[in-house]
Amino acid sequence: MEFLFNSLLELITQTSTNLPPDVRAAMGIALKQETPGTQSHQALSIMATNIDMAHEDQGPICQDTGMPTFIVHTPVGVNQLVIKKKIKEAVAEATRLGKLRPNSVDSLTGKNSGNNLGEETPVIHFEQWEHDEIEVKLVLKGGGCENKNIQYSLPCDLDHLGKAGRDLAGVRKCILHAVWQAQGQGCAPGALGVCIGSDRAHGYDLAKMQLFRTLDDVNPNPELAALEAEIVAEANRLGIGAMGLGGGVALIGCKIAAANRLPASFFVSVAYDCWAFRRLGIRMDATSGVITQWLYRDPERPVERMAKETGFPLTGREVILTPPLTAEMMRQLKVGDVVLIRGEMFTGRDAVHAYLMKNPPPVDLNGAVLYHCGPVMLKQGEEWFVKAAGPTTSSREEPYQADVLRNYGVKAVIGKGGMGKKTLAGLKECGAVYLHGVGGAAQFYARTVKKVLGVHLFDFGVPEAMWHLKVEDFMAIVTMDAHGNSLHAEVEQATGDVLETMKA
Ligand code: SF4
Fold it and tell me: Which protein family is named in the record (predicted)?
């Protein structure tokens, strides 16, 4: 097994940095179908640019490289303990090289292990099979989309859709509801893995397993094939748009399995994956561990560039923001304005927000820009470099954000997916704005960072620390302004109205 470690490291690197052809094709179709000039189209253009950048530089497509989940098939007689050990070594090395973000956090102490190893991480499933080779499939699914997974127990009552019964019509309603409730928070356009039936725990497993099907395959069960196609078509009429900014795309795929259930239970389990749908696989020689075949990749189909042009097409109407910012400046901004940030900003996510509830900030945040981001960082010599730095889901900071604005004078918050009523009221009270970045565009945003000026609260671990960054032309859209307007609330209401028409 002399090549096993290197083969696994290559699998992790390629999965993190290079989207499979079926996902690229689906994103290409979404880009063509979205109306040019809309914010949804702009977001898709940035995603396309980001996909190219990640591939060209072998950098993580998204800074959240998720819970590494391996599905391993081995011939009878192969030592699975050796494979498990090598997978763990390869995961630690990929983390050290900046291909994976340190993502394994002790649930009791909150401590990040720093190498993606810990209790039950990474996730590894073993199966034996009759073939001669070893197969390893890997999916990297981040927390933003993982948090939008949902499970229904039929019969139930659903927002906008009413009663969902124990039949395929009820299942259809659940899946449409799953898309609607995700809005942009799982970084739409997304892809769904669905399991009808089974029990609660295995239902979720089987839903996730559907994500190992290619987006362009056809379900062998004609009834499920029809439902998959119907869901994609209907979801894309909801008006969610890329990142929930409103528009004609919401889903790039829906894959459904049916499993037997207990007479008393009828679950519909939905695994929501984001556009940064990272899934690959390899077959290896069972003696040497050398790669004999890549899965999901067509050797006849070379990797093509996704974006027509690199970067964000500027219109000249962008508003330049140079911190420190004032309430007066922020009150001039309206929902829909595109801003370019030039100057300094601080990252801060879950741990930082919780810390700020009980402690003063380690830096002066008056007039500051606070970026909800858990970057991938690498230290070379004494200097830190950003390897990936897209926005994280902001709604987790909803309980804290208004207090942070009020107590410390932050004037702009950048994140993704939008925030709720409490934050909206806080923005109005304090003269501040919420700026929306493109989720998953980790390479695109990493390139706007010209220098890492410092780091605070480093004990929280790399993703949770407060990084002090100097950026140039960091693009974001005002989606919640200082006048009480929220694009997210508008899109949720409008898409809810459309969902209501899909009751039948
Ligand atoms: S693209 Fe969005 S949802 Fe997906 S892993 Fe990245 S931040 Fe999370």
Answer: Belongs to the class-I fumarase family.
349, 410: one domain: yes
Q: Which of 44, 50, 62, 371 to mutate to test the pocket of ligand 1 (most atoms within 8 A of CB)?
A: 62
| Residues 333 and 446 occupy one common structural domain | yes
**DSSP code of 348?**
-
CA 2 to ligand 1 center in whole angstroms: 34
pLDDT digits (tens, 9 = 90+) for 347-406: 999 999 999 999 999 999 999 999 999 999 999 999 999 999 999 999 999 999 999 999
- Sign of dihedral through CA atoms 228, 232, 233, 238? positive
Number of H helices, E strands in the chain: 14, 20
| pLDDT, tens digit, 9 for 90 and up, residues 167-178 | 999 999 999 999
Instruction: State the chain's mean pLDDT as an integer.
Output: 96
Residue 313, preceding peptide bond in cis (omega within 30° of 0): no
State how far the Cα of 274 lies from the Cα of 262, in Å rounded to an integer.
Answer: 31
> Which residue range(s) make up the domain with 400?
319-488
Picking from 263, 291, 313, the residue at the C-terminal end of a domain is: 313
- Residue identifier of the C-alpha nearest atom 1 of ligand 1: 440
Please tell me whether residues 247 and 166 are part of one structural domain: yes
Pocket residues for ligand 1 (CB within 6 Å)? 62, 64, 66, 142-145, 186-187, 274, 276, 390, 392, 439-440
The low-confidence residues of the chain, meaning pLDDT below 70, are 309-312
Are 328 and 439 found together in one domain? yes
* Global pTM value: 0.94
Cα–Cα distance measured from residue 44 to residue 31, given in angstroms and rounded to the nearest whole number: 6
Same domain? For 225 and 344 the reply is: no
CA of 336 to the centre of ligand 1 (A): 22
Kindly give the distance from the C-alpha atom of residue 143 to the centroid of ligand 1, in angstroms, as a whole number.
7
411 and 479 share one domain:
yes
